């Protein structure tokens, strides 16, 4: 579309002059009723945020969505009590909706809000899920209210791309609503391809610009008597400390001009009612209602005859707990009819069975074992990634990645619908998991580009979610070192057990959101031969169930954290102590009592075992920790000791990789190898004999210092160009080099001593033999 320097739309912005002032602000942290003096005007502002199409009632509990009809009753009751009532939203009215609204692209939600006479809404990130053309076309064309945002700007300018504000006049008082949208919107929260030509300007400076403009008497579109900020950004929790200080939201509450009398926030789904000082030290309400229409916010403004704000109170109340019943149910009935019709459509489409699952496909959880953790590896994320790889396999796809924010609910074994047996997955249940209708995109990516994408799971500093765990498809696995710095954490990658080098090229599938760098995964925008398959993610899930009527949840860990004792120069030797710190060994949704033990072995020798600590650490993927410490086995401790004829002859060793075994049998092979005494076949006449064993026939070439084989005798068996184990290719390893390193096994340039995860099966490691020149094993 053609971009221009002026806002795309201007609706409901009155013209004319009016007195404007910041007023005397009295913000109370508890609700109170202002007593209006003669000539005063009382204005009630009712608001919601992050409604996300929750038009159906989820029950009567205070923590459940009350539904659009009940919300309509609350709004109508305020209007009946005070005609000077404004209904506002702080964005995300649509998107990530429940199936009843989603199946009709949120048209029922828009219609319901129209029936409630929504006056104004900020633009949330989900309003742009399908791009700017969808917002300015389909959504705004159907909506009867204006969408506002002052800081979504035309790229390269500070000119707003949308309406920056809207003025609503009630009782002769003009209330100016300035909109703002989280600065993470571009490029992090929406598909960059859908917002091409747009950029984000700082919230504070943009809001302050319009606060000044609306109160200094120079704006030709009419001034405001009172200003309210509708900002689709918020504090991460309900704690006052998170709404103040140096954080993203604290900068807003402290930096937005005191000409703004109240800040109504959104985006983080937190619930709070704070009183926080602005730049001039005057306190003002700062509120957020949670999400899904569970609660509503209420600001009550008192404005005197001179259009001065003389009082303001704030409260957040439960919609389900509200006892208000409107005298005129007309609007309530209209909304109820919209919901009923939408539900009828959804019931028909949603009841169709797609397939069955044998267990829960769940997202990761935080330490409360309830709240979603987008930083944790999840069964659901890995499963959906495999669905998308499978859907594009005919396009050559080898690996798929799934962003955790695209998974909006769990796929549970227990049936949620009447008449459906446990394990049944319906169209509705699948649709609620992926409600964004992203298409699947394939691209060629090098090992370096894939590594870069995995490194970007650690998000830029200062974001509320510091880590976003990608779901990965079957067969792909990687290890990381949590102790390393940014850009250095990924230590190895494999596909079907084979190492991936940095210069390898793989065909990768991601959704259209990720393909253009969504969620700050810029590496996914750097591939070549990028092709949109045209397949919608939900349809891919439908097709997968058709091909696989019964789906078993994946149980293997696709990513394991590992820090290993640094490999000494020349490699590990018998008696050396090694410590392996492991993490991310279990899913956070697993039963912690079933975490079990992990072991490490070499060859057939088990070296150490440890109990797995399943404690969840919030926001990341480190749950399932264990530390394994052991000594490199000497000849005497080797499982082959019974067949070893002497310590001298035990210089024939093989370098064996360390193998970690998880409780379910999944194995992880280390790129670190240690020497293990070679097994000897006593029936093999070519094997050397032990001259100290009188039962063994003498070997004239062995040489013991007393006979013809001593000293420089060519039969001494050292330095001949063939190692003692009989492998001529390994003569250069006689000095004790590692059999293989992280460089030659996986990614060039990554040091040895790091794990390589083999996915559902053990990595088939190349085992090279190494000769030792020591006179005896275990001495140095």
TrEMBL record:
Residues 369-525 form the 5'-Nucleotidase C-terminal domain. GO terms for molecular function: hydrolase activity. Residues 702-720 have a biased composition (Gly residues). This is Bifunctional UDP-sugar hydrolase/5'-nucleotidase. The chain crosses the membrane at residues 745-766. Residues 1-36 form the signal peptide. Residues 555-574, 680-733 are annotated as: Disordered. InterPro entries: 5'-Nucleotdase_C, 5'-Nucleotdase_C_sf, 5_nucleotidase/apyrase, Metallo-depent_PP-like, TAT_signal. Gene3D superfamilies: 3.60.21.10, 5'-Nucleotidase, C-terminal domain. Belongs to the 5'-nucleotidase family. Keywords: Hydrolase, Membrane, Nucleotide-binding, Signal, Transmembrane, Transmembrane helix.
């Amino acid at each position: 579309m053609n971009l221009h320097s002026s806002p795309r739309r201007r609706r409901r912005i009155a013209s004319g002059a009016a007195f404007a002032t910041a007023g005397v602000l009295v913000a109370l942290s508890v609700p109170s009723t202002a007593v209006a003096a003669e000539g005063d005007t009382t204005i009630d502002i009712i608001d919601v945020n992050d409604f996300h199409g929750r038009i159906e009632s989820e029950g009567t509990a205070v923590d459940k969505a009350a539904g659009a009809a009940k919300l309509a009753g609350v709004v109508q009751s305020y209007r009946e009590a005070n005609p000077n009532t404004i209904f506002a939203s702080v964005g995300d009215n649509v998107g990530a909706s429940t199936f009843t609204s989603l199946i009709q692209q949120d048209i029922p939600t828009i219609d319901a809000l129209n029936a409630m006479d929504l006056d104004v809404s900020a633009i949330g990130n989900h309003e742009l899920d399908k791009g700017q053309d969808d917002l300015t076309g389909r959504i705004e064309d159907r909506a009867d209210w204006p969408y506002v945002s002052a800081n979504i700007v035309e790229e390269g300018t500070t000119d707003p791309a949308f309406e920056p504000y809207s003025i609503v006049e009630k009782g002769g008082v003009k209330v100016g609503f300035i909109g703002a949208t989280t600065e993470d919107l571009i490029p992090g929260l929406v598909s960059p391809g859908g917002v091409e030509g747009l950029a984000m300007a700082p919230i504070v400076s943009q809001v302050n610009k319009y606060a000044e403009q609306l109160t200094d008497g120079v704006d030709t579109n009419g001034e405001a008597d009172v200003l309210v900020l509708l900002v689709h950004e918020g504090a991460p929790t309900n704690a006052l400390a998170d709404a103040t200080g140096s954080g993203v939201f604290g900068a807003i509450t402290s930096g937005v001009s005191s000409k703004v009398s109240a800040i109504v926030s959104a985006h983080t789904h937190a619930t709070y009612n704070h009183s926080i000082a602005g730049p001039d030290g005057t306190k003002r309400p700062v509120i957020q209602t949670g999400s899904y229409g569970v609660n509503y916010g209420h600001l009550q403004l008192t404005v005197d005859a001179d259009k001065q704000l003389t009082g303001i109170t704030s409260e957040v109340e439960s919609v389900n707990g509200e006892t208000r019943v409107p005298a005129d149910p007309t609007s309530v009935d209209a909304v109820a009819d919209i919901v009923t019709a939408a539900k009828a459509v959804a019931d028909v489409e949603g009841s169709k069975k797609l397939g069955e699952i044998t267990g829960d496909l769940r997202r990761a959880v935080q330490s409360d074992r309830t709240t979603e953790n987008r930083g944790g590896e999840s069964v659901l994320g890995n499963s959906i990634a495999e669905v998308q790889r499978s859907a594009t396999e005919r396009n050559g796809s080898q690996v798929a990645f799934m962003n955790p924010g695209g998974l909006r609910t769990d796929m549970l074994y227990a049936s949620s619908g009447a008449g459906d047996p446990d394990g049944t997955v319906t169209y509705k249940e699948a649709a609620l998991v992926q409600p964004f209708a992203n298409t699947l995109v394939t691209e060629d990516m090098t090992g370096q580009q894939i590594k870069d994408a995995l490194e970007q799971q650690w998000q830029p500093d200062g974001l509320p979610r510091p880590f976003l765990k990608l779901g990965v498809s079957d067969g792909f696995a990687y290890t990381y070192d949590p102790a390393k710095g940014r850009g250095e954490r990924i230590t190895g990658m494999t596909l079907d057990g084979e190492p991936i080098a940095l210069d390898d090229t793989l065909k990768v599938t991601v959704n259209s959101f990720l393909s253009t760098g969504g969620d700050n995964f810029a590496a996914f925008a750097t591939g070549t031969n990028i092709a949109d398959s045209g397949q919608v993610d939900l349809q891919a899930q439908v097709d997968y169930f058709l091909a696989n009527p019964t789906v078993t949840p994946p149980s293997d860990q696709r990513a394991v954290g590992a820090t290993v004792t640094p490999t000494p120069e020349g490699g590990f030797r018998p008696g050396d102590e090694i410590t392996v710190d492991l993490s991310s060994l279990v899913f956070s949704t697993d039963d912690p009592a079933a975490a079990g033990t992990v072991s490490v072995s070499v060859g057939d020798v088990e070296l150490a075992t440890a109990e797995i600590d399943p404690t969840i650490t919030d926001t990341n993927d480190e749950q399932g920790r264990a530390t394994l410490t052991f000594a490199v086995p000497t000849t005497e401790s080797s499982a082959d000791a019974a067949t070893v004829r002497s310590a001298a002859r035990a210089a024939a060793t093989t370098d064996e990789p360390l193998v970690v075994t998880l409780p379910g049998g999944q194995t992880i092979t280390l790129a670190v190898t240690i020497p293990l005494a070679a097994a000897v076949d006593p029936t093999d006449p070519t094997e050397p004999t032990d001259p100290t064993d009188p039962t063994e026939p003498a070997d004239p070439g062995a040489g013991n210092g007393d006979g013809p084989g001593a000293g420089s005798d060519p039969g001494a068996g050292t330095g001949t160009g063939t190692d003692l184990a009989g492998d001529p290719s390994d003569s250069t390893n006689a000095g004790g080099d590692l059999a293989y390193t992280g460089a030659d096994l996986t990614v060039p340039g990554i040091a040895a001593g790091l794990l390589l995860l083999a996915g559902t099966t053990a990595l088939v490691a190349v085992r090279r033999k190494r000769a030792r020149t020591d006179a005896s094993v275990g001495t140095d």
